[in-house]
Amino acid sequence: MIEPLELRHLRYFVAVAEELHFGRAAQRLGMAQPPLSQQIQRLEQIIGARLFERTSRRVQLTDAGTALLPDARRLLAGAEAALLAARRAGRGEQGELRVAFAATVMFLALPEIIRAFRDRFPGVHLDLREMPTGPQLAGIKAGEIDIGFVREPEPDPELDIVTVMREPLRIAVPKGHPLASRATISVRHLADEPFVLFPAELAPGLHAQVMSLCRAAGFTPRVVEESRELYTSVSLVEAGIGVSILPASVEKLGWRGVRYRAIPSASAETRIAAAWRKDRGRPVVEAFMGVVQEKVAGGR
């Protein structure tokens, strides 16, 4: 049975073809000349044709050798490129990373994190997707998203969850509301107010937190409108439909008809976490999280 062709055979062939001297080729390859001659002979047996004309004075390529040389070079270059790509992917330096984020996280540290990651890992394509926490968690579990930035996620045995940021909550009221003149507003002052709130399935943890703050203040909020988008929630507050409790970053949306007031409670903050599937701990996810933790720590 004929020995199968191996990449080493091609490396030996290319070295001899470029040097046209077995001694120099052996030195270049870091091996003795007799084994090199034996490997070239084996390659000729595999091909079924002589690759070199050898005399005491010189070595020349045959027609078969001349035909093989360009393809041998391409095969070796392709193999090297494949190995390099695999090594880079194994270090998290190449590939694709699908990152999802809640809308207001873009008002925090995420843009700086994305910039830093792209500068450090230009070989990774970032697929960025804005979506609420609930759909993010579903997408992560389904394998449609690699890593998500979610608000107040509940513990989940399928996910690794790492807190990366905390953000205060604010009470949002129309600018003409009697409470707008206060520097801070206690949640109990909202007991008789109509509420604009987001559905629980969009941000289950944050929704539960708002409800918990209200219950701790002695009431259950009277929700008159549910909004699936933050800018719609703020617009409804501006229109006087109701008040709301929202992450402080919504202030950057710039609605002039809304006033945001601090809540005098240590528990009135929202936790932002990075989440990914435990069984999909890819090197590129580890590389991204390294940048996240570096940037967040540097911003403290």
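That was protein one. Protein two is written in the same sequence-then-structure order:
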Amino acid sequence: MPQHTTPFASPPFDSQGLQGDLRRMAEVGAPERRRALTWLAALGGGSLLGATGLSGCGGSGGAATSNSTNGSSTVTATSSSGEVCSVIPTETQGPYPGDGSNSANGSVVNALMLSGIVRSDIRTSVGSASGTAAGVPLTLRVRLVNVNAACATLDGWAIYLWHCTRDGKYSLYSSGVTNENYLRGVQATDSSGTATFTTIFPGCYSGRMPHIHFEVYRSVNTATSADNKLLTSQMAFPTEVCETVYDNASGYSASVSNFAQISFATDNVFSDGHDSQMLSITGDISSGYVATITVGMLA
């Protein structure tokens, strides 16, 4: 599964000036951002970044700026209250998006068109399917903010997310669950910019660190096809929480050996950096977990 799939053309920038350049750097993966920063610095863009950044609108917080550390670049901003937010990198959607962009068994798969797909609890299938995904309960709270506007909340936007079962299978695609559509759902962000999902802790399948895929849309009404998505990325899980769940929770036995053979350093998506993609998790196996993340965009 390739990482960071939006390459720059040559030359790597468009005609929208510095703001357009920074927007594109934030929307591609770290290797391309590093190459873009090198190209920009050669033209004197580094001084522009430090002097002006991107204008923050709708607030008195600091302007968005691009920073490079250990060969990796990020675009960050600071709100008037002191909150620091950063742009999350674009990642591959993987082979099981269910957003109308690919096919399975000869047919286009688009869960976004299913009646009932806009829901908070994604553990049970909708429509003609009725299966329920078993696993440790997980409440996921995803907050969207505009890094280009001093971390202002993005309310009324939509998040579509999907992830594997505790056995490492994806509904609609994997053998045994092709007729199910659970662990997929769309939610609109509220006045705080937050969309909340009730789901399960995903398993770890061979070759990948545990993760959740997601796409961002401008509204629920536009969340009907991948053609309308504004961002695709992935969320990562803390290693110690994964170890606790896989070693102690029922139904996750296959994840134990898979997890032992993978790390962030060898994962083909997270190996170039995952700080802005890491979930903050509280809770335990018996009562369930609560995971939160702030997703920064250049909106």
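The radius of gyration is 19 Å. Keep this in mind for the problem set.
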